[in-house]
Predict the 3D structure of the following.
Amino acid sequence: MDPLSAAMKIASSGLEAQSTRLRIVSENIANARSTGDTPGADPYRRKTITFGEAVDRANGTKTVNIKKLGVDESKFSTEYDPNNPAADAKGVVKLPNVNMMVEMADMREANRSYDANLQTIKQSRDLISSTIELLKSQ
């Protein structure tokens, strides 16, 4: 496999991984205030993503993949809200373990990584097109 095709393959695996990461972050943000359905029930638990690498034996390149989708086991925060349907007998409601600042930082980083991979694919495609044009003119 030529270097430009390898670069496109690596970047496309990065696009897929960052796309999944953006989906997970979006789910976390959308559920940042989702409490349990019954009194004392656990609320939404923050989802996590772990990246891994895979070796393409055909050309020896390493690509990124999703190693594991998991959940954040950190403690839930609580607040006193006796009118909430998820409040326990003491009026305490468990809130999701989603920190909006962390999620926004994660989203920003994932978006930048996605854009960088997309730019790599565009530049590789442009280089391939330029090479074809040069070969045509000879």
